[in-house]
Known about the structure:
mainly alpha
Amino acid sequence: MAFSPQKRKGTISGIIFVALVSASATWIAGLTPIHNLGLSPLVVGIVIGIFYANTLHNHFPVAWESGILFSAKKILRVAIVFYGFRITFQQIAEVGLEGFLVSLTMLTTTFILGSWLGMKVFGLDRDTSMLTASGASVCGAAAVLATEPVLKSEEYKAAIAVSMVVLFGTISMFLYPLLYTTIFEHAKGLLHLNPAQYGIYVGGTIHEVAQVVAASGINGAGTQMANNAVIVKMTRVLLIAPMLILLGIYLSRRAKQIGGEGAVVKLVIPWFAVYFLGVAGFNSLHLIPTHFISWINSVDTFLLTMAMTALGMGTRFAKFKGLGMAPLYTALGMFIWLVIGGFIVVKVVTAIF
């Protein structure tokens, strides 16, 4: 137990250490050059954590490891639950059925495609494939963090998935505005996207929330583009809860199939995902003042940064051996689908509705 009399002091010291490093990551992410790149404190935190794991790790007390693990596992679940304060059901209703259908379609197809590419085409293990697919299909680093406890995977696999999110999410942040200003805005017919459609396209296909904001903030495009982008993105975030529940059911059934008819397999229900939905529902009632919600979200971002930093601290480069280019190829396949397939889905759905 992390807080047993023997481990309590080391656990607390480890948590404080993670918090201090996370505070540094938050400060660095606020610097203008880093902020302009769209890199969140979560990403900066995992980079610092990985640096620590592969350079300074042996110079710190082993007793702190229990606190680092506690941050990566327990604090993570709390942070995911409070992530629900970023969403209301009213926001989702604003973009209507078309925004919801784009979100649902892109999440489902991207997760299935990424899992299949990783496991069946490029020979990746199940956990790395699904974590990478989760990051691309839902909401980047936060989705990787939320999926990791359901899979019960090793920390370095989540770090690989996050690195793919950072790489292709950053490319998206610069590519999408370029595509819009050079093609979508001026094209006639099938290639044309109006600001509202482009907002849905960005929100339904780009990885991180911060990257969505950056890619939708095109000068002179008005607020509808940015609003649609953020709301559709938050719809994808909300869908992580049913996705994780279904994933837990799938993994339990799969384990029973492998173990045979007589095998007793416990159904894995990610309760933190259920609580996340409950918090989002409560937030939709607007019972808490806006300024207090803003404070909760700031604290939650810091808790997520702690979890990501701790995850990086458990990542050793030596564990990456043997993976080769498979994670990159898997993420690239999903990226191509998000850019091209997402465009097609948006055109079809908006044409129907």
